[in-house]
Amino acid sequence: MSAVLEVTDIKKNFGGISAVDSVSFDVREGEILGLIGPNGCGKSTLFNCILGQLTPSGGEVKLDGKLVTGLRPAELNKLGVSRTFQLLQVFPKLSVRENLILAGQEHQGNMASRLVGRSDAGLTDAANQMIGFFKLDHLADEPAGGLSYGQQKLLDAAMAFMGGPRLVLLDEPAGGVNPSMLADLKERLVAINREKNATFVVIEHNMEFVMSLCSRVMVMAEGKVLAMGRPDEVRKNPAVIEAYLGH
Amino acid sequence: MTGFAKPLKIALGLAVIAGLIVVPMNFNRYGLFILSQWAVMSIAAMGLNLTLGYAGQVSLAQGAFVGIGAYAAAIMTTHGWPLPAAILVAIVLSFAVGWVLGYPALRVQHHYLAFVTLAFSTLAFLVFRNESWLTGGIYGISNIPRPHIFGIATNKPLPFYYVCLGTLAIVSLAVWWLIRSPWGRAFMALRENPLRAQSLGIDTRRYTLMAFAIGSALGGVAGALYAPLTQYIDPVPFNLSLSLDLLMMVIVGGAGFYFGPFLGAMIAVLLPEWLRFTEGYYLMLYAIAVMLLLIWSPTGILGILDRYLAERRTKAASALRAVAKSRLETAQ
To answer: Are A85 and A92 in contact (CB under 8 A)?
Structure first.
C-alpha cells in the first residue's frame, strides 16, 4: 500500500516551548490511523501543522508524494484533505442541509459558476444522502444550532465527508457523544472507510473506540512519537503505559 | 420570515411594489425627493448589509463609496456622457477601490478594521475637497443633468423617482440572487466561523475581498444616482457621518436580514420628516429611540420579527410533541 500522507520531521515551537518535536510518520492508503497521547502532548498542534492552519517551524508534509507544506487550509481541502474539530464547529444559523451543501459547494465548479449557477450548487441530493447516512433525516431543515451536542458532532463529521475527501483528520470525534450514538458513528466511519476508500487519522481519548476502530495507533508524549504499531502491540508497550500512568 | 404562507408573502410584496409605483404619482416635489432619497440610500445600505451583515466585515467607509460614485457620475454627465455609462464607471471604480480596501480585512477584524475603513473614509473626503481640478473642491459640481431613458426626459421629479426605483429593483434582484447563491452561503460562513470555512475549502481571502468589492460597488451605484438626484454635489454629504448613517440604517433595520436595509433607510430618511412637528427635539427623540431599540433587540427591527416567528415555531413544535405524547400514552 502506498502512503497517502508522509510527515517528515515536523516541528512546531511556541516561543521556547516545542509543542511538536521532530515527528515523522506516514499514513497508508485506506487505513485508519489512531493518534493518542495525554492532553497537551501536541496531537492537535500536529493536525494544525499538517492542515496548514499553523505554519510548522520545520519539516515536510507530503500528500500522495507531493510537497504540500505551507499550503492554506482551503487549498489543502481542495486537494482532498478535510477535517473535523475537537470543539463544535458547525454553522448554527444554517440548517443541517445548508451546512452540508456549504461543506461541498467549493468542490463544485468555479467561482463564476457558483455565482450564476444553481443556489444549491447541485448538492441537494448529495446532502440528503449524507443526512440519511448519518440518520439526521428528521433534522434536515432545523438550524444546526438547535441540535443536541452529539447530533452536532455527527453533522460535523458528515460535513467533512461532503467533498469526497481522500484523507480525513478527525479530532476527538467521540468526545461527549453518548454510547449508542458512538456505536453509530463508528459504524458510519468504517462504512465510509471501506466504501469510499477514504483514509482516516483519528485523535481520540476513548481507548475502546480507538483500539477497535484503528488498524494502527501512534502514541505521542511531550511532542514526540513514543510508539507506533498495531493496537495490541501499543497497549503492551511499557513506555506507553508509563506515559499514561506516570511514575 | 418563514412564518408567513407563500401566497400571502407574494401578495404583500406585489402590494408594496404597486404602492411604490402608484401612490407617489400624487406626491409633491419634496415628497418625491424624499422617496427618491430613500431608494438611493436603500441601495447603499444594501451594499453595506452585504459586507457587514452577511460577510461580517465591519466597514465605516460606505459613505466614501457613495461619494466616489457621485463624483464619477457628476464629472462624467457634466461632460456629456450618458448616466448609464457613468453608473458603469462608478461600479467599476468603487468595486476596484473596495477590493483594495478589503486587503486590510485579511489581517485585522472588528473594531481594528473599523478604524482602517474610517481612515479611508477621511482620506476620500480629503480627496473630494482638495483635488479641486477634478472635483471642484469646496464649490462642488453644479448643474448635474438628469438622464434621458429610452428617449424620455427625467428632469421632472416623478420620472427621476422611477429611475431610482427601477435601479433599486434591479439591485434588489441582484442581491437576492447573490445571497441565495453559494456565494451568499460562503459569506455567511465567513461571518460565523472563518476557521471552519477554510477547512471546507472556502477561500476566505477571495470571498472577503469580494464582499468588500461588491458592497462598495453598490455604494457607487447609489452615489451615481445621488448626483443627478440633488443635481449639485460638494464634499460635505460624503463625510464620515454618511458612513455612520448608513451603518445605523443597516443595524436598525437588522444586519444580515434581506429587508433590513429597506427598513433602515426608510427610518433614517422618513423619520426626520414625520418627527418634524417636534421641531428641535427630533434628533434627541431619534437617538433615544435607537438606543432603546438596540437594548431591546440588538439584531434590529427585523430581529424582533425573527425572534417572534422563531418562538411561534418552537411553540407549534412543542404543541405537536405534546399531542403525539398524549396519543402514545392513551394507546398504551
So the answer is: no
Q: Do A94 and A144 touch, CB atoms closer than 8 A?
A: yes
Residues of chain A with Cβ-Cβ distance to B206 below 8 Å are: 111
Query: CA–CA separation, B182 vs A105, rounded Å?
Result: 7
Residues A36, A218 contacting (CB under 8 angstroms): yes
- Report the predicted TM-score, pTM, of the whole model to 2 decimal places: 0.90
Give the domain B25-331 fold.
ABC transporter involved in vitamin B12 uptake, BtuC (1.10.3470)
State how far residue B134 is from chain A, nearest Cα, in angstroms: 36
Q: Which one-letter amino acid corresponds to residue B187?
A: F
Domain boundaries, chain B: 25-331
Which residues does B242 contact at the CB level (< 8 Å), separation at least 6?
A: B62, B63, B66, B67
Strand partners, A12: A20
Q: How many residue pairs from chains A and B have C-beta atoms closer than 8 A?
A: 81
Question: Is the torsion defined by CA of B313, B318, B323, B324 positive or negative?
Answer: positive
- Rounded to 10°, the helix B204-230/B29-48 angle is 170
Place of cell 460565523: B192
Q: Mean pLDDT, chain A, as a whole number? A: 91
Q: How many CB atoms lie within 10 A of CB A151?
A: 20
SS3 A28: strand
Q: Does pLDDT of B324 surpass 80? A: no
CB-based contact, A245 to chain B, within 8 Å = no
At A245 the pLDDT is 65
Residue A146 near chain B (CB below 8 Å): no
Local confidence band at A246 (pLDDT 50, 70, 90 cut-offs): low
Residues A76-95, mean pLDDT to the nearest whole number = 91
Q: Which helix (H) or strand (E) holds A81?
A: strand A81-83
> What are residue A73's phi and psi, to 5 degrees?
-55, -40
Contact status of A197 with chain B (Cβ, < 8 Å): no
Identify the helix (H) or strand (E) that includes residue A50. Answer: helix A43-50
